[in-house]
Description:
Blueprint: E1 2-13, E2 17-20, H1 22-25, H2 32-39, E3 43-46, H3 53-67, E4 77-81, H4 92-99, E5 106-110, H5 116-129, E6 135-143, H6 153-156, E7 161-173, E8 181-189, E9 197-199, E10 212-214, H7 216-238, E11 247-250, H8 255-265, H9 276-279, H10 286-296, E12 305-312, E13 316-323
Parallel strand pairs: 4-5, 4-6, 11-12
Antiparallel strand pairs: 1-7, 2-3, 6-7, 8-13, 9-10, 12-13
The chain binds oxa(dethia)-CoA.
Oxa(dethia)-CoA (UT7) binds next to helix 2, helix 6, helix 7 and strand 12.
Amino acid sequence: MTLRSVAVGTGHYLPARVVENAEFEAKVDTSDEWIRTRSGIERRHFAAEGETTSSMAIAAARQAIEAAGLTPADIDAVVVATSTPDLTFPSVATMVQAGLRMPGGFAFDVQAVCAGFVYALANADALIRAGQARRVAVIGAETFSRILDWTDRSTCVLFGDGAGALVLEAQEGAGGPEDRGILATDLHSDGRFRDLLYVDGGVSTSGSAGVLRMEGREVFRHAVEKLAETAETCLARAGVTADDIDWIVPHQANLRIITRTAQKMGVDMDRVVVTVQDHGNTSAASIPLALSVAVADGRIRRGDLIVAEAIGGGLAWGSVVLRW
Ligand code: UT7
């Protein structure tokens, strides 16, 4: 018998305010046409004043716990992937723990920018398999609208806010690829690429939050090269092939990256969950948002084989293969 981390509930939260591409035409020298054709993005949600990463994370987690038929008291760990925490500390995860009125357990944040949710899943899976936790709420939550330079057309049109959550539960499996749950994980980073995507402020440098800076074309090049590679490594580790996949659930940064990665893997686009048109790039929230949306609309079903892959600042990238 093998201990597996099985997804038993999903949830998500999107702020009420929807911003269409056209709204940017009045602010910077851009067009709906450019944003759509270069990124696939049509609209995104922006948090309202007073709405925070933790408030969105709490809403998503509450929904995921309810969907699992559980209560917060059943959860013994909270892991939040975020690069836009409410405060430098304490962690967003402890704010979620308090917001859910969890009577015990432990909570911490993971910071791997857009790859954050994949890193969080790998960490939560390790906790479960090591016997440290039986049920973990894994959340990706971001308010990237708070770290955008509104005069930089090459970045401000790309990002959005939101949160997604899933509950992982320890269950016994047979040890093979037919098991439900996380079958394999694959993580990488290379800090030599820090200048390709970063925020130009922070606690021990400027003392302020800073704004996002990105060499988009270079990040694009790395993404196309690295995402299919990590996904294929992870599939092999899980003992399956790309033909076995029911769904790729990619990080939602750019439709062209998503399409090229699927092409490289030989997977048709009708087996790829795409939400970038409606959410923009929500960094660590993008994969759990896409998972939750696709579960809610009936695309992802029990038993489906899924590969999730992501890349972002660091550079940090990785993938997870799981059976739903
Ligand atoms: O989530 C973390 C990982 N991040 C990513 O995966 C993002 C990766 N990068 C990308 O998605 C794409 O590189 C972008 C969408 C950011 C940009 O697309 P691109 O096809 O790589 O465009 P580019 O940066 O090569 O820019 C092409 C042109 C430039 O003009 P010139 O130099 O050709 O005259 C830009 O100045 O488009 C211009 N441009 C814009 N034009 C209208 C850049 N931003 C805009 C804009 N509106 N918003």
